[in-house]
Write a structure and sequence with these properties.
Layout: H1 2-20, H2 26-57, H3 60-71, H4 77-85, H5 90-114, H6 119-143, H7 153-181, H8 184-203, H9 219-232, H10 234-249, H11 257-263, H12 271-291, H13 296-319, H14 323-351, H15 357-382, H16 388-405, H17 410-418
Helix pairs in contact: 2-3, 2-7, 2-8, 3-6, 3-15, 4-6, 4-9, 4-15, 5-6, 5-8, 6-15, 7-8, 7-12, 7-14, 9-15, 10-14, 10-15, 10-16, 12-14, 13-14, 13-16, 13-17
Length: about 425
């Protein structure tokens, strides 16, 4: 019994190390911190832009339009971004992207602080920010597997996903006091500072990472390679389509939150920020929990149940009668949605060879990000006609139906019951 007590701290440390083992590698650690800082800047921008546009216009339609402008580049930029990420040094490409993000945010902050800001300017700068993000995301995903040994890949991908979802907490948390006391202009300035910090972290990475382009093939043919890989891989094709519907029906809710915060929860200007913080907190906990799951069979079962729960999340948020309940529901929703998306990303990164990783990541982003852009615009317009809560809840229930229908395909059934097999 005494020996067991002596070994207990070591056992706890060993268990904890399973969740963060990839962070023991210097270059990956720098990448992780850079991605966390950039993600915080992204979500700070989303909240600050939505808050400012709604305060200027009192229109969920315009909030949806600005969100669409920020996501619209995901329709056409990712294939070229993936090709670029497979052609040049991914570390240097990320450095330049973050530099452009700093410049964009400085301009946005200057316009807002001086009082010359107009909605059309926000739309244009959101579009530019979206172009940068459309290049950044597939490049980051393609770089991560080169920074750790292959046996740490799943943990690295999971922890990288944690930065994406956990930054929903950090970004709004940092800017909420600024929005309330100093105005959204200073929130934009803080976003620019966070992008600058990301640039510094990425510049310190030593690992050189590029893909492999086929000799003798033109640009368009090399672009199509990633698309062909997805659509010729039976399981991967189904996974991407399922994720597309998940992002469209369960996760495209940003354009609805400002109006629900004001009218349903009476939460004022900071209500949107607090809801996003709750989503981020739940997402971070959910993804870190996923990082410790070693069994492929268990990951398959989790994918099924998290997908179903992710559909019920928007319904819970839709029926929340006050902000306190909405915060709890948002945290739970963030956890299950982030867990589902993380498991999807682990599956994709496990299947795809490194030589075309940038292109496949970009095609994946084109599918899911593009549909999120469209549905944020659709939901923003529907909220002008129907009750926003009804729009949100209906979309969530529809995804629950999608998860049920996914059982019709044998590859998905095998994935749910046995996990990803060699």
């Amino acid at each position: 019994m005494e020996g067991y007590r002596l070994n207990l701290p070591n056992r706890v440390l060993l268990t904890a190390s399973q969740y963060v083992s990839a962070l023991s590698y210097r270059d990956y650690r720098l990448m992780w911190m850079g991605t966390m800082s950039a993600g915080a800047a992204d979500w700070a921008l989303i909240v600050a832009r939505g808050t400012l546009v709604f305060s200027l216009s009192d229109s969920s339609r315009l909030v949806g339009l600005v969100t669409f402008a920020a996501m619209a580049p995901l329709f056409f930029i990712p294939p070229f971004a993936g090709l670029l990420a497979d052609r040049v040094d991914r570390r240097k490409l990320l450095t330049w992207i973050f530099a452009f993000q700093v410049i964009t945010n400085v301009i946005l902050a200057a316009l807002a602080i001086t009082g010359f800001i107009e909605i059309w300017q926000i739309i244009v700068l959101s579009f530019v920010n979206g172009i940068n993000r459309a290049v950044q995301m597939p490049t980051s995903q393609a770089l991560v597997p080169n920074l750790v040994p292959s046996d740490k890949l799943i943990n690295a991908v999971t922890l990288s996903s944690a930065t994406l979802h956990g930054s929903r907490l950090i970004g709004p948390l940092l800017i909420a006091p600024l929005v309330l006391t100093a105005g959204t202009g200073w929130a934009f300035a803080l976003s620019g500072l966070l992008y600058a910090l990301s640039m510094v972290f990425i510049m310190q990475i030593h690992t050189t990472s590029t893909g492999v382009l086929s000799e003798g093939l033109g640009i368009m043919r090399n672009l199509i390679v990633g698309l062909e890989f997805i659509y010729h891989h039976r399981l991967l094709k189904l996974i991407v389509f399922l994720t597309l519907l998940h992002c469209s029906l369960s996760m495209a809710f940003e354009s609805l939150l400002p109006v629900m915060s004001h009218r349903q929860w009476d939460a004022g200007e900071t209500g949107f920020a607090y809801i996003m913080m709750a989503v981020g907190a739940g997402a971070f906990v959910g993804v870190v929990a996923i990082a410790g799951v070693q069994s492929t069979e268990m990951r398959g079962k989790l994918l099924l149940w998290l997908g179903v729960a992710s559909g019920f999340g928007p319904l819970g948020l839709a029926v929340a009668g006050n902000q306190s309940i909405a915060l709890v529901v948002a945290a739970l929703m963030g956890g299950v949605q982030a867990g589902f998306m993380t498991l999807i990303l682990v599956i994709i990164q496990t299947i795809v060879p490194d030589g075309i990783r940038g292109r496949v990541s970009s095609i994946y982003l084109l599918h899911v990000g593009g549909m999120m852009a469209v549905f944020n615009l659709i939901y923003g317009n529907l909220a002008e006609i129907f009750n926003p809560a009804a729009v949100l809840g209906s979309a969530g229930l529809l995804f629950v139906l999608v998860m049920a229908v996914s059982f019709l395909w044998a590859p998905m059934r095998r994935l749910y019951f046995f996990g990803l097999q060699a």
